[in-house]
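Figure caption, in words: inputs first, then the predicted bound structure.
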Amino acid sequence: MSRLLLLVSLATACGGARSDGPPARRDAGARAAPTDAGDPRVVAGATLYGKYCALCHGPEAKGYAADNAPSLVSRTFLESSDDTFLARSVELGRPGTAMAPYGRDLGGPLGDGDITAVIAFLRDRGDVREPIAAPAPLPGDPTRGQALYAPLCQSCHGDATTRGTAVHLANPTFLALASDGFLRYAIVFGRPGTPMEAFADRIDGNQVADLVAYVRSWSAPAPVKPATPPTAPDGPVVLNPKGRSPSFTLRDGRFVPAAQVAQALAKKQRLVIIDARPPSDWLRERIVGAISVPHYDTTTLDRVPNDGTIVVAYCACPHHASGVVVDELLRRGYPKAYVLDEGVLFWKKQGYPVAGTGGAAPDPHAGHTH
Ligand code: HEC
Ligand code: HEC
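Bound structure (heme C present):
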């Protein structure tokens, strides 16, 4: 349904005004300066972007500040992304990656107007005001596509279940939003200024179609938006208040391995665990007993006692957001604040205990999620 929406809005937004010839070769680097600094939406979007997004996508939105978050301003990306794709990508996030749902309906910090402002800022930064037509390829053959994907794409994009260093193409939310035309456009023209090269000169149109068919074969039902924003009761801040303090062996005096934290929990030792991601991620899936203190709003750290209790913060990216919270704790004089070394995605992979509504549609009537 979202794909249909996307195609419809692409068709109406562009009116077929521009053809799908190779984009003019312009220098991606020369396009950074904002030209619409007077537009109030762009100004508001810049502020929101700086607060919520720059940590990973970088101050210029060119990506790669943390966890290989992609560029949000490359020309081909903005040309083939309509505002529905952009808005839903921000609202719903990419479950299973460091990209959280930022929409308020999912427990994130951004309302629809905020997301519109961020998109206005990105379009201004990238200097692509409107998407252009990105026609779908002819039907391809997924088996032939698989044979091409393995040598040409897998080293960066991973496979159906594992993210590589680049955007995870098998992510169900991504595939629900991205049209075949979007996929084709990225493969043919690449993403100038990023490691994604243009394959136009290396493979022919049939091979591109086969690759698109193969990537499309990964489509799976995407998580659905809940009818009302999910909520969860706040549990106690200090876990096992009567337990002993764990003795962690730290890396670089700052990072504590996940295995040691899992063991401390199993032994009912005294500690505080902080989820530094947006609360939408915390609601969906968190380390058992973790409290939510998003990296962009650390005022709620006030409720963490400064009495020598060990505090461990984590995120998905896997150090950046947690590092911000730990630095704030250290600045406030907490003596023992550490970063969970491998991050929460690793924690989950190990089968260590998590709580939350899970990746599927959160049940708005579930109440307790602990
Ligand atoms: C903690 C790191 C992090 C933060 C903060 C973050 N993102 Fe992301 N974002 C990512 C990663 C990683 C991906 C790629 C996910 C994947 O592997 O598919 C991504 C993907 C995206 C995409 C899809 C891009 C594409 O090429 O498909 C959009 C759009 C996006 N982010 C926008 C935002 C906006 C806007 C914000 C702020 C409101 C934001 N992100 C905050 C890490 C982050
Ligand atoms: C050298 C690493 C590398 C290889 C090889 C590679 N890609 Fe990419 N690809 C990337 C990166 C990095 C991005 C994100 C670029 C950005 O916008 O920051 C990307 C982006 C994409 C996107 C757009 C995703 C989005 O949400 O914006 C698609 C589709 C894609 N690649 C498909 C492929 C296919 C199919 C192949 C094989 C023919 C391939 N790539 C080979 C690194 C690679």
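The chain has two domains: 2-216, 255-355.
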